Amino acid sequence: MAILFVLFFSERCSMTANGLPEAVYLTRERLVALEQELRELKTNGRKTVAMKIADARGHGDLSENAEYDAAKEEQQHLELKIAKLEQTLSRAKIIEARDLPNDKIYILTRVKLKDLKSNELHEYLLVSPEESNYEENKISVTSPIGKALLGKVKGETVDINVPAGKLRYQILDISR
């Protein structure tokens, strides 16, 4: 389990030039949601897994008990998720949209775009990678679209290289 955490941590945690973990920028709402999820996993999640392990132990020989192995694996996944959440929360910095300028596209900017090939309109909110959710039109500032939009202003045309090809958008509006 410790090896899994070290591998997970080293793969998921960007480091600054001085070797410290990079900050994770979150809105207050997302921070509260992550803290609540962590509390839930530490209490009810651990209790549920412990009950599954205890129940599986009651089925006899552990060396040939698939139910026990599955419960132990579930426990490892749970502990890994808890460690990830703790690591994210330990690096969390709260950002507020009102504290950011309105002159350009930054994190927490709502952007209205026009696809110049299809004439479709798209609206996105640029957020940190930890908050991105495509179904809610929240895209990460580290995604290809997010990176290309950062620093741009209303009226600009942006060419974006994405895995599916090249996108060309006009920025119709930016807001907080």
Tag the structure with descriptive keywords.
176 residues, alpha/beta, 2 domains, five-stranded mixed β-sheet, disordered N terminus
Give a verbal description of the structure.
With about 180 residues, the protein is α/β, with parallel strands linked by helices. It has two domains: about 1-95, Transcription elongation factor, GreA/GreB, N-terminal domain (Helix Hairpins), CATH 1.10.287; about 100-175, Chitinase A, domain 3 (Roll), CATH 3.10.50. The chain has four helices and seven strands, in the order αβααββββαββ. It has helices at about 1-10, 30-55, 65-90, 145-150; strands at about 25, 90-95, 110-115, 120-125, 140, 155-160, 165-175. Strand 3 (about 110-115) and strand 4 (about 120-125) form a beta hairpin. Helix 1 crosses helix 3 (about 65-90) and helix 2 (about 30-55) runs antiparallel to helix 3. It starts with a helix and ends with a strand. Mean pLDDT is about 85; it is low at about 1-10.
